[in-house]
Amino acid sequence: MSYRIKDLSLSPQGKRQIEWAERHMLVLKLIRERFVKEKPLEGVRVGAVLHVTKETAVLVRTLLAGGAEVWLAASNPLSTQDDVAAALVEEGVHVFAWRGESAEEYLWAISQIAKSGPNVVIDDGGDLHAYLHDKERGIAERIWGGTEETTTGVIRLKAMEREGVLKYPVIAVNNALTKFLFDNRYGTGQSALDGIIRATNILFAGKKVVVAGYGWVGRGIAQRARGLGARVIVTEVDPIRALEAVMDGFDVMSMDKAAEVGDVFITATGNINVIDGRHIEKMKDGALLANAGHFNVEINVKALEELAVEIREVRPYVKEFKLKNGKRVYLLAEGRLVNLVAAEGHPSEVMDMSFANQALAVEYIVKNRGRLPVKVLTLPREIDENVARLKLRSMNIEIDTLTDEQRRYLESWKV
Ligand code: NAD
Ligand code: ADE
Questions:
Q1: Model pLDDT for residues 26-46, shown as the tens digit of each residue
Q2: For residue 144, is it within any domain?
Q3: Could you give the angle at the alpha carbon of 173 between the alpha carbons of 78 and 79, nearest 5°?
Q4: Residue 151 Rama label (left phi>0; alpha psi -120 to 50; beta)
Q5: What is the dihedral of CA 199, 205, 207, 213, to 10 degrees?
Q6: Is beta strand 287-291 parallel, antiparallel or unpaired with respect to 318-323?
Q7: Residues 79-119 pLDDT 10s
């Protein structure tokens, strides 16, 4: 068996972590019970590039239960939980991931997943899809289909589709309602603040928190920061979303203005240089900068380094930059996903739905092998609704069903 991880002896601790996550992932448990009986993934090789966390391990166990062979690498050089990686190796998974990979090691690990010759690929952020289309010849053509976990990855895949280079169908799991409405909003809303708090132990109450981007992630962060007593400012480029933030009761202004007043800055846009050198120069002494978007491009770290006369690590995942103007600003988690680097990512309960969609998307690709168009696809609505139903069931919540009379009424139009 091939693998490369930090330390196999961490496996018992990793196993306990996975068991803890499993207790909170009841939808995946139900899917796994069915997979054990039906074996829908028998003989299927799944190549996955995901954050290697205890929640991902529960997804991997589900795929194994369905009969799959799994190859796994990290979707971020700093997000791997090394104990979980060790436990997965002991369970027969080919894992190539450790916390603190260099840029070259990160790509090398992804290349191992590509070279394994997967039938189905799962990606978070699009680096595996891009690698398979750009750096390898002859592998992508044989892939039955893929999935994509996050907004940034879906944007990249749509660009590939537009340019006519996409080689296999991809299900945009991110776009399932039971994914983005919950994971992006409530998952990141809680875990991004969790990451900032674990790294700094700051009090949010009374702070001016600037949230860049009022998409699903930004909405969640703004809502949760307000819940902790912060005064929240939103920055946007989309007039409709900016207006929505205003009507939701947030202050909305340009980043140039917000830079002067904010105490904590959290980017959630999926875009580049949203906090740039000119903004950093205007910031107050002590400003904290964190990113919740997929890539470490939202805060211009190079510009920050160029503005600094002194840089030192003051706590784990907190770097102090003393600027030429005498002020100090603090960069958290190197500008990478603060929730996965400085905390543990989303809570298991929310990953339960995201990864239920992933497991069902893989099953759907296998069942429909050769019949799906080579496009970026949405999961069928029945699968999405089924995930919601199972989640409600796992929470012991019953809902009403339409009576025949109500259904007829809703389908009628005559006066
Ligand atoms: P989204 O498309 O719903 O929202 C992004 C918002 O950012 C949009 O409203 C857009 O108008 C705005 N925006 C773009 N450029 C901007 C700029 N220069 N200034 C201000 N606003 C700008 O996307 P989303 O689902 O909210 O995801 C945002 C990012 O978070 C993506 O990179 C996604 O992959 C990532 N993500 C991270 C996690 C995590 O665990 N940290 C979870 C889910 C998604
Ligand atoms: N993305 C956000 N949180 C995550 C988690 N806990 N596991 C895997 N991927 C994630």
A1: 999 999 999 999 999 999 999
A2: yes
A3: 5
A4: alpha
A5: 80
A6: unpaired
A7: 999 999 999 999 999 999 999 999 999 999 999 999 999 99
Contacts of 254 (CB under 8 A, 6+ apart): 235
Q: What's the CATH code of the domain at 207? A: 3.40.50.720
| Both tokens assigned to 99 | 């916390």
Neighbour-count burial of 76, counting CB atoms closer than 10 A to its CB (0-12 exposed, 13-18 middle, 19+ buried)? buried
Q: How many domains does the chain have?
A: 2
Ligand 2 interacting residues, C-beta cut-off 6 A: 50-51, 53, 55-56, 340, 345-346, 351
Longest dimension (CA), the chain: 75
Q: Is the pTM of this model over 0.90?
A: yes
Same domain, 143 and 25: yes
Task: Pick from 269, 339, 344 the residue to mutate for probing ligand 1's pocket: most ligand atoms within 8 Å of its CB.
Answer: 269
Q: How far is CA 78 from CA 274, 287, 334, in A?
A: 22, 23, 9
CA of 152 to the centre of ligand 1 (A): 8
- Distances, alpha carbon 61 to alpha carbons 28, 67, 70, 355, in Å: 10, 10, 9, 11
Dihedrals phi, psi of 78, to nearest 5 degrees: -115, 10
Structural domain harbouring 154: 8-175+347-394
Claim to verify: residue 352 and residue 237 sit in the same structural domain: no
